[in-house]
Specification:
Blueprint: H1 3-22, E1 23-26, E2 30-36, E3 39-44, E4 47-50, E5 56-63, E6 67-77, E7 83-94, H2 97-102, H3 107-124, H4 128-133, H5 135-152, E8 155-167, H6 169-235, H7 240-259, H8 272-286
Length: 287
Amino acid sequence: MSGSLVFVVALLIFVVVTLAKGVRILPQGEEWIVERLGKYHSTLKPGLNIIIPYLDNVAYKLVTKDIILDVQEQEVITRDNAVIVTNAIAFIKVTDPVKAVYGVTDFAEAIRNLIMTTLRSIVGEMELDEALSSRDKIKARLRESIADEAVDWGLTVKSVEIQDIKPSESMQRAMEMQAAAERERKAAVTKAEGEKQAAILEAEARLESAKRDANAQVMLAEASAEAIRRVATAIGDQPGPMMYMLGEKYIASMERMGSSQSAKLVVLPADLQETIKGLLARGKVAV
């Protein structure tokens, strides 16, 4: 191979390498940062771009589409010293590639850490119940708090979503024990209230029964008094009917005694007629 041919081949290789280094075709959704001799020079946009080989260097390639950042789960302490576990997901977009590259070492990790610290700060100002029920409020405050920092880094925070916010395992066990104790307390109170109402109703029933018994006895006494008064009025000065009634009751009493199962022996007067007469006679004398 002659020297001239070698020179031509080397020249062709140099031209090909130079063109390869000088022509840059960027896909849609990306922007590249070009440095010239170690200093920022320009930003390449999607499409065909020409740079000076050997002087310019593509230092960074950035994606300008929305970036999804997963913020890992972390434990957060609320204002009332309860431990909850929360994580989030953020949607950001690079709007200024120069600031994104030169404003912070790693903008994705910076945003992730900023979200974690801000989330701890926001939840730390809330009590447990408020934190568990204020997901939208936390989300809004979180986005508002990190928006200014993100702008300084050439980023736009499009949305921040709270994925999970729940008590820690130890906190869940404590809450379950507390709930069980509260249910047992309510059951005990309900049982005691039931027993109290039952005792009150039972006492009221006894009181009502006693009142009715007393009223019944009064009514019976009044009825007996009225019956005696009427009998006395009907009999007048004649003791015979009254003696007859006493003899009739005497015989009825003796019959009940004889029919009783516990009665083993019933002693009757030998002469029942004379006995009744005697009773009538004594009654007559008494009258």
